[in-house]
Please model this.
Amino acid sequence: MIKYNLICECGKTFESWFSSSDEHDVLRRKKLINCIYCDSTAVRKSVMSPNLFSKTNKISKNTNLEKKVKKQLLDLRKYIEKNCKNVGDNFTREARNIHYDKKTSKGIYGRATQEETAELMDEGIDVTTIPWVNKLEN
Ligand SMILES: [Zn+2]
Model:
């Protein structure tokens, strides 16, 4: 059994148990997960805070690890910029075009709000959110 914190479009959060993460995905795709407050099916897993290094002093003091992660994210950014097309604010529209028209297999990147990203995922479009690192800090 696995417990998820779920968040509804009405803003309420609640907990729900699933036998596996796959079960959660299937139920969600079939819109069988309902908000316990308003019965809406626009429910998604609550996203963890991205503050990866703020929880314990032990880790936040480990600046080498932080630098290493930043370096990897920077490398990832370079790779994406080199191999994918920047569509900026048109990301949501372009992602749908590629998904539904299958015109091009070229990767794209750009900006989307958390809600837009959730909508794309609901439609079965494969999107990933990564931290966009600007530069290495000392
Ligand atoms: Zn609700």
User: Anything to note?
Assistant: The first helix runs from residue 21 to 29. The first strand starts at residue 2 and ends at 8. Confidence is low (pLDDT under 50) at residues 49-55. The helical segments are 21-29, 57-60, 63-83, 91-101, 114-122.
